[in-house]
Design a protein that fits this description.
This protein is an alpha+beta fold. The protein has three domains: 158 residues, ATPase, nucleotide binding domain (Nucleotidyltransferase, domain 5); 89 residues, Nucleotidyltransferase, domain 5; 69 residues, Actin, Chain A, domain 4 (Alpha-Beta Complex). 39% of the residues lie in helices and 26% in strands. The strands form five sheets. Strands 3-2-1-9-10 form a five-stranded mixed β-sheet, with helices on both faces. It has a five-stranded mixed β-sheet with strand order 13-12-11-17-18, sandwiched between helices. A three-stranded antiparallel β-sheet has the order 5-4-6. It starts with a helix and ends in a 6-residue tail after the last helix.
């Protein structure tokens, strides 16, 4: 009872601590922050120079003493200290004014996370100033965000393609009935584009450029209207700046490997699904969420492979944080979907 009383005065937060972006949600205001999970650090002094959107602009453009660090890799913490600083900065940014209590936080994590990785997330959040820290698996958060009936004895299938991981899961009775957590997602797509330009055109391009090209003309299957774009980088042989013009076909070829891996993960999950839940999925189809699900033609490729209806959430970039945020409304009711 006392705990519920204190919650009336605390500013609880829902957090999508992603490899690419971090989003924060409050009960009163909804989504209050959406910024890149990047920290710019002075390597000589050990000081933080910028965090979030400003720091992302540093990627590939910094002098030797400054490093733009992405402390989250493959959906989990790669640098504990930098992650704590990132979380603390974002908490301070959204919770202004006098705070009498440390904010409780619910954070989403990949379904394939280990116990050690769970502890790292919880301890990092506490180090950053959080009170009680609860974790929720990303597929569950995506299903809640999309309004799927996760508490019913009915199968709901979700595919969440984030920056570091692709999460494929079938959910029933507030738990994952079966799941595949694949560390191939948006970042792997960007790296595939970079490798392709290096191998095919002897052109080195930066991470930000690879991401922009993927978003503008990238696709998983042939497009009705061909697209082209100019790409600038550094000649791998001479070291001189160079600009080339490429088509959507080039990027589709570059992304073929990651796309195949995602399709395979979906197939594996369907193979593991119990018959009764399979029948539910056959009727209701599959929900897609996450930034990677916006790749042109990916839903068509999945439909062709599975013969199931594929639906894209109305705002796939915020599905997860909206789902985590829903659990703040009644923490006791939703406690059964937490994994910590």
């Amino acid at each position: 009872m006392l705990k519920k009383f204190f919650r009336l005065f605390s500013q609880d937060l829902a957090m999508d601590l992603g490899t690419a972006n971090t989003l924060l949600y409050t009960r009163k205001a909804g989504i209050v922050l959406n910024e890149p999970s990047v920290v710019a650090v002075d390597a000589e002094k050990g000081t933080v120079l910028a965090i979030g959107r400003e720091a992302k602009e540093f990627l590939g453009r910094t002098p030797r003493r400054i490093k733009a660090v992405r402390p989250m890799r493959d959906g989990v913490i790669a640098d504990f200290d930098i992650t704590s600083r990132l979380i603390a900065y974002f908490i301070r940014k959204v919770l202004t004014g006098l705070r009498l209590f440390r904010p409780d936080i619910v954070i989403c994590v990949p379904s394939g996370i280990t116990q050690v990785e769970k502890r790292a997330v919880v301890e990092s959040a506490r180090e950053a100033g959080a009170g009680e820290v609860n974790l929720i698996e990303e597929p569950m958060a995506a299903a809640l965000g999309a309004g799927l009936p996760v508490h019913e004895p009915r199968g709901s299938m979700v595919i969440d393609i984030g920056g570091g991981t692709t999460e494929v899961a079938v959910i029933s009775l507030s738990a994952l009935a079966c799941a595949e957590s694949l560390r191939v997602a948006g970042d792997a797509m960007n790296m595939a584009v970079q490798r392709y330009f290096q191998d095919e055109f002897r052109l080195k391009i930066g991470e930000n450029m690879a991401e922009r090209i993927k978003m503008v003309i990238g696709s998983a299957c042939p497009l009705k209207e061909p697209l082209e774009a100019e790409v600038g980088g550094k000649d791998a042989v001479s070291g001189a700046p160079r600009v080339i013009r490429i088509s959507d076909g080039h990027i589709r070829e570059a992304l073929a490997g990651p796309v195949r891996a995602i399709v395979h993960a979906v197939r594996l999950t369907l193979e593991k699904t119990p018959p009764e839940l399979s029948a539910d999925i056959a009727r209701n189809g599959i929900l897609m969420a996450g930034g990677g699900s916006l790749l042109k033609g990916l839903s068509d490729v999945l439909h062709e492979d599975t013969k199931l209806k594929i639906a894209l959430d109305e705002d796939p970039l915020t599905t997860i944080v909206r789902g985590v945020g829903r659990t703040l409304d009644d923490r006791d009711f939703y406690r059964r979907v937490y994994i910590s």
